[in-house]
């Protein structure tokens, strides 16, 4: 019985996983190999590097936010990258958001920590009209919305280069190594010393990309640290419970022959 | 008097209720003293695992529905709100989303266990057929649930799958318009899918109840596939199988938790984190992994209607399986030829899963067609024939004497019949 059951178990457990593993490279084939710079949030115990995420927030604010919205996130979410309540209030207050005034007319007011991040364009049409017909995607879950996740976003941000000889580029398009099809509407957003970091970190393209990807990964997964911490506790609990249950099972079955 | 039940429970409150409505007696009979073959291996855990998964899915689903908005302009944002603002919303959603994959893993193992040990054979044909109904309901529920986050894969998956019905001549397009509630997948589609996604799990509970009733009439099959001959062959369900199922359940929860807490988007498609856009088709529309084999069958047939019929046929054939398999021997343990074919069939199903994940080009088309052909050949031709040709190995006398004595030697100690002491 055991002998028959073992391969059945192995095959049936392996099948769905094998199918998935087969599916992944099938889709990744078209892209070049993505860089993997190594992330503070990798692995079951990974956390967000607060300093990197704060620098990344600065990059987002000074560079990305000119075109890209972050509409699912709130200013209050910035507490997760280590900003204080007072800092968050000040950051929010420096932005004005649309509201309806007491006279019933559209007006603006300073944002509160409970407000969503203000989008640079009021709607999709306004964005397309301003940007040669292109729509910059919302960045709230961008890290989860692309094959390759953080590595992909990092790859795009650092993947700008001259097109290979003979490649015909579309009007206003830019060559990018990581972007599918290699033609991206977004001009190269990051350059060396694009931002000046307050903590004295040298603002190379790689550093800026690394920081902003850390920030965006946090924004896409604000629950990640709690999730992994809870997960470790639950796995330990379940491992103990499995042991105890198995011991009880052995005891109960000890009189069966 | 219609007859009060003569309850044997000592507790006066329990006794009072049981006298008037003998649910305690029923539970005791069906789940405590219920005689169960004593030789189950751990594959007999998976029915219990599926039941528990269904309950967890309903529990998490009810709380998700409290915070979800089934409107095409708000659905995507409401899911993000669940992830960010609802207390432990991320846990509810990730447990539910990964739970769908866990449910299919468990049910597929449960089904293949039935195929290996001949659990579909007389007298369990109806039990098996109810199980196929459960599979179909699960598939419909999972499909509609995947539409609810209203991402790109939700929208385009819904478009592709509902469009399958347009393959039927004359009425096809009318059916599709009727399913959509309009001329494209849109707001009415999302609303009705949400309504049905909430309804069907409770229908599932009802059908599972029938599955269990049928099971408790016929009794469980067992790894030897032979009938229970005497009380010596059985154990009371409690505590023997409640504790054995608990062991499996703990291990199963560990696997589930591993995905929920450490790789919550492993089974998901990144495209579903892009809000649905009817004007932009994703580069590839891939169904969830548990539908890939059917998707492969669909695409292996060059004709659309043919493909749709074969795809539905791949499940419908299971309804008549009890009559296609002509062998009276249940367990593959005693069927040398069937045992080989079973593994070929498992391989064909896995191959179909791989084929479904790849573009239908080159070798994948060939592999898809070969595997599809084998899938149907296995059920429609090989099972009826080998049941007649195969010489099964000698069956053991009983579950308590699982070893067929060879040359009259003494039986191994473990196989000697020993009267059960514990009731």
According to CATH, what is the class of the largest domain in chain B?
Mainly Alpha
Mean pLDDT of chain B: 93
**Helix run count of chain A:** 7
The global form of chain B is: globular
Pick out the low-confidence regions of chain A.
22-30
CATH domain class name of the domain at 31-73 and 116-166 and 175-243 in chain A:
Mainly Alpha
Describe this protein's structure:
The complex is a heterodimer of chains A (257) and B (423). By secondary structure, chain A is mainly α. Chain A has a domain at 31-73 and 116-166 and 175-243: Cytochrome Bc1 Complex, Chain D, domain 2 (Orthogonal Bundle). Chain A is built from 7 helices and 4 strands; from the N terminus they run H-H-H-E-E-H-H-E-E-H-H. In chain A, a hairpin with a 5-residue loop joins strand 1 and strand 2. In chain A, helix 5 (149-157) packs antiparallel against helix 6 (205-220). In chain A, 30% of the residues are buried. The model of chain A is unreliable at 22-30 (pLDDT under 50). Chain B has 423 residues and is mainly alpha-helical. Chain B folds into 2 domains: 28-279, Cytochrome Bc1 Complex, Chain C (Up-down Bundle); 286-395, Helix Hairpins. Chain B has helices at 12-20, 23-32, 46-67, 75-84, 89-116, 125-147, 152-163, 172-180, 187-218, 237-262, 292-300, 304-324, 336-357, 363-389, and strands spanning 35-37, 234-236. Chain B has a two-stranded antiparallel sheet. The two termini of chain B are 34 Å apart.
Summarize the structure.
The complex is a heterodimer of chains A (257) and B (423). Chain A has helices at 2-28, 50-62, 85-93, 124-130, 149-157, 205-220, 224-253, and strands spanning 96-100, 106-110, 174-175, 183-184.
């Amino acid at each position: 019985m055991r002998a028959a059951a073992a391969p059945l178990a192995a095959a049936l457990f392996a099948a769905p996983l094998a199918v998935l593993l087969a599916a992944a490279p099938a889709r990744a084939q078209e892209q070049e190999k993505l860089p993997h710079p190594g992330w503070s949030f990798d692995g079951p115990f990974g956390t967000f590097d607060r300093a990197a995420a704060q620098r990344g927030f600065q990059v987002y604010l000074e560079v990305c936010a000119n075109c890209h919205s972050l509409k699912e996130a709130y200013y209050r979410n910035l507490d997760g990258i280590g900003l204080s309540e007072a800092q968050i209030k000040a950051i929010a207050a420096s932005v004005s958001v649309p509201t309806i005034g007491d006279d019933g007319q559209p007006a603006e007011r300073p944002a509160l920590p409970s407000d969503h991040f203000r989008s640079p364009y009021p709607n999709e049409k306004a964005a397309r009209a301003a940007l040669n017909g292109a729509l910059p995607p919302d960045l709230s879950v961008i890290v989860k919305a692309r094959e390759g996740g953080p590595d992909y976003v990092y790859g795009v941000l650092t993947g700008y280069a001259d097109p290979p000889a003979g490649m015909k580029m579309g009007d206003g398009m830019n060559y990018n190594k990581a972007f599918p099809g290699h033609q991206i509407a977004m001009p190269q957003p990051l350059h060396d010393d694009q931002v000046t970091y307050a903590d004295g970190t040298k603002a190379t393209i790689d550093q800026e990309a690394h920081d902003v990807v850390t920030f965006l990964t946090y924004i896409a997964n604000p629950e990640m640290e709690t999730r992994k911490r809870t997960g470790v506790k639950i796995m330990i609990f379940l491992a103990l419970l499995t042991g105890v249950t198995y011991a009880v099972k052995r005891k109960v079955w000890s009189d069966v022959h | 008097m219609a007859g009060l039940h003569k309850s044997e429970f000592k507790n006066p409150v329990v006794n009072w209720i049981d006298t008037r409505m003998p649910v305690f007696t029923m539970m005791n009979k069906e789940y405590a003293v219920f005689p169960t073959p004593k030789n189950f291996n751990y594959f007999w855990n998976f029915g219990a695992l599926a039941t528990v998964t269904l309950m967890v899915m309903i529990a998490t689903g009810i709380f998700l529905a409290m915070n979800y908005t089934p409107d095409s302009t708000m659905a995507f944002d409401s899911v993000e709100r669940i992830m960010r603002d609802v207390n432990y919303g991320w846990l509810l959603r990730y447990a539910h989303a990964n739970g769908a994959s866990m449910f299919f893993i468990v049910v597929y193992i449960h089904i293949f266990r039935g195929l290996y040990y001949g659990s579909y054979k007389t007298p369990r044909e109806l039990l098996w057929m109810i199980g196929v109904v459960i599979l179909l309901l699960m598939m419909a529920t999972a499909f509609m649930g995947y539409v609810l986050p209203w991402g790109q894969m939700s929208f385009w998956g819904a478009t592709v799958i509902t469009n399958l019905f347009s393959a039927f001549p004359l009425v096809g397009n009318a059916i599709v318009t009727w399913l959509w509630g309009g001329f494209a997948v849109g707001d009415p589609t999302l609303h009705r899918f949400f309504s049905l996604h909430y309804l069907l799990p409770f229908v599932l509970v009802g059908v599972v109840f029938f599955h269990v009733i049928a099971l408790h009439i016929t009794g469980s099959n067992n790894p030897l596939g032979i009938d229970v001959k005497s009380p010596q062959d059985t154990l009371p369900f409690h505590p023997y199988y409640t504790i054995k199922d608990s062991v499996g359940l703990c291990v199963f929860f560990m696997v589930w938790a591993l995905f929920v807490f450490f790789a919550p988007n492993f089974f998901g498609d990144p495209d579903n984190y892009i809000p649905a856009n009817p004007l932009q088709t994703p580069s590839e529309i891939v169904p969830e992994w548990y539908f890939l084999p059917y998707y492969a069958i669909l695409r292996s047939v060059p004709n659309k209607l043919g493909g749709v019929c074969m795809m539905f046929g791949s499940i419908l054939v299971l309804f008549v399986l009890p009559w296609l398999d002509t062998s009276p021997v249940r367990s593959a343990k005693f069927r040398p030829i069937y045992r080989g074919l079973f593994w070929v069939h498992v391989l064909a199903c896995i191959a179909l899963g791989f084929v479904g994940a790849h573009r239908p080009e080159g070798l994948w088309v060939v592999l898809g067609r070969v595997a599809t052909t084998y899938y149907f050949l296995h059920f429609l031709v090989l099972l009826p024939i080998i049941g007649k040709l195969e010489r099964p190995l000698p069956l053991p006398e009983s579950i308590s004497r699982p070893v067929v004595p060879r040359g009259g030697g003494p039986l191994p100690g473990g196989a000697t019949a020993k009267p059960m002491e514990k009731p």
